[in-house]
Amino acid sequence: MALYDKILAVRPNLTQEDFMPEGTIMLQNDSDGKGDYIREWNHPTETKPTQEELDGVA
Amino acid sequence: MVTSIKGNATSTFGGNVDVPQIITDAPAFSATSSANTSASSGVLTKLVLNTEQFDTNSNFDNATNYRFTPTVAGYYQINAVLISPSNATATVADIYKNGSTYVSTVFYHPTVGVTQRFPISALIYLNGSTDYVELYGLQNGGTVLVAGSMMNGVLVKAV
C-alpha cells in the first residue's frame, strides 16, 4: 500500500486537499529508488503518524 | 552586453546603433520521459526525464538525477509540460530550483477520463555552478505521470 493510502487509513479525517500545494501535508518522491516520504507536515489538528502506525497498516 | 555600430558622415543613419549581443553558445536543452513515471496519488514526484532531444552544453543529467545544472551563469527560460493520467482528478506541476519549489501550478481537471497536458514555465536565475532545476508533478487518482512529459530551457541572458 502506498504511503498516501496508509496515511489516509490512520488519519481518516484527512482529504485530498490536504495533500495539494495549498494544503498542509507534502509527500514527495525523488525518483531515486527510496520511495515516497513525508517532506512536510503542518496540519493544525492531525498529528504526523509514527512509523509504527504506518507499518501497522496492511 | 551590446555591440555598437558606429556611423559616419556619409551613413544614412548618421549615428551609432546598439545591437544586442547574440549569444551563439547559449546552453539549451530539451528532455522528455520515454516511459511513465511511477507516482502514487498525492505524492509530488520527480519526473524521470530520461531522453534528451538536445543538450547543447551537456548540462542535463538524464541518467541519475534528471536535472539541468548549467555551467554558464544567467537567466534561463525554463518550460515544461506535464501529462497527467486520464483517471486523475487534480494535477500539480512544479519547477524545482535546488530541491524546492520555484514555481507551482495546480489544475483541477474539468473532465476525468481524458489524458491532460499542463504547461508551466519560469524565468530563473542559475549561478552556473551549483544551481539546478528539476520537474516535479503530482496527480490525484492515478498511479503514474504519463510518458512524454517534458522540460526544456535556454539561456536568455548571461551575467
Structure description:
The complex is a heterodimer of chains A (58) and B (159). Chain A is of the alpha+beta class and 58 residues long. Chain A has 2 helices and 2 strands, in the order αββα. Chain A has a two-stranded antiparallel sheet. In chain A, β1 (25-29) and β2 form a beta hairpin. Helices cover 0% and strands 54% of the residues of chain B. Chain B has strands spanning 2-5, 17-20, 28-32, 37-38, 43-46, 51-55, 60-61, 67-68, 74-84, 90-97, 100-108, 116-126, 133-140, 144-145, 150-158. Chain B has a 5-stranded antiparallel beta sheet, with no helix packed on it. In chain B, strands 5-13-10-11 form a 4-stranded antiparallel beta sheet, with no helix packed on it. Chain B has a two-stranded antiparallel ribbon with strand order 1-2. The mean pLDDT of chain B is 90. Chains A and B meet through α1 and β1 of A and β5, β10, β11 and β13 of B.
Number of H- or I-type helical stretches of chain A: 2
| Unreliable residue runs of chain B | none
Alpha-carbon distance between the two ends of chain B: 9 Å
Low-confidence stretches of chain A: none
Strand content of chain A: 15-25%
Helix content of chain B: under 10%
> In one word, what is the shape of chain A?
globular
Strand content of chain B: over 45%
In the sheet with the most strands of chain A, the strands line up as: 1-2
Radius of gyration of chain A: 11 Å
Class derived from helix and strand content of chain B? mainly beta
Structural class by SSE content of chain A: alpha+beta
Short descriptors:
heterodimer; A: 58 residues; alpha+beta; two-stranded antiparallel sheet; 2 helices; 2 strands; 22% helix; 17% strand; B: 159 residues; mainly beta; 5-stranded antiparallel β-sheet; 4-stranded antiparallel β-sheet; 15 strands
Structure described in brief:
The complex is a heterodimer of chains A (58) and B (159). With 58 residues, chain A is α+β, with helices and mostly antiparallel strands.
